[in-house]
What does this fold into?
Amino acid sequence: MGDAKSSPVALVCGDDDFAVKVRAKQLYQQWTAEMGGMDHETIDATVGNGGDALTVIGKLREALQTLPFFGGGKVVWLRDCNFLGEDRTASSAAVTTTLAELAEELKKFSWSGVRLLISAGKVDKRKVFYKTLDKIGEVESFSAWSQDDKDWADRAEMAAMDALRKRQKDISEAALAELIDRAGLNARQLENEVEKLCVYTGDRKRIELADVTTICARNKTAKAFALGDALGDRDLPRLLARLDEELWETKFDKDKSEIGLLYGLIGKVRAMLLLKEMLREGWIKDTRDYNSFKAQLAGVPADRLPAEKKFNPLALNPYVLYKALPQVKKYSSSELVRAMDILLKCNQRLVTSGLDEVLVLQQALVQIVSSGGLSA
It folds into this structure.
């Protein structure tokens, strides 16, 4: 990634739409201040079909060729462009050809006094237009946080702390952990929750855990975490309430299913089992400091762990393990092994029997949480 200030052309893109919008707006404001003048243009590039995409490209060409009426420089912002990816509109022959022609024009264009900013979602890096922008300008790409990224919680914490510092606020460790847990992988919601917290706490500088639990909502991903956390906390009323919420959402969300919920619970129990073993081996010690916990994980002997990812605790997101640290005390090792067996049998019943899925899941969770006291 280069410095967009040194080039007259910049593409800001990626599937983290919030970060893209923030950075593009920042760059546009910076460029217009540097260029001066009154003739800057913003073109809305969110389209529904190929014909609309061609119309937008035509507007862009016209904007680039139109000299500033009041003198000075000119910034053209092609905003929220959604036809640079791999969908049907972007892949149409007419759009592909026209973008390739535009790329040639941009190579030969005299950029004296003119700058072009394009903000877009996910782009197809194989296409001529992207390659041209990457060659003649600067590309800044922002990827959304993913559970597959081990550092997503770190990135979320840094984003939250930065947003809070800008508002001259401080936050306790427990409150920060809960905030990240509730906002989950959604950067936009994290920013919104920080804004809500700052308004809610008024002149008070420090944000506490009670503030987060009172005012902050849980997003879809965080709700999935909440189901696993209720199981880890061995809180049956909360667990059944969260299960009801999740099962209700499966009726309206095609990406959710009873099997998907079950696999999430299996992953939670597996993480707790692995964590229990690491504690028993003395590789890690109980701590409420996330950075201290990560430092301990770095010292775990990798050669003592299985190669297969699903059985290797270091392959898990460290934040998932950190959240489970106080929860493993609520179960014995034998109870966690039994819980895994119950969930695997539940899986078989969901797949092979005609029993009611809700009842099958409820029975399994009641068996796990209501089993006898700690024994090992």
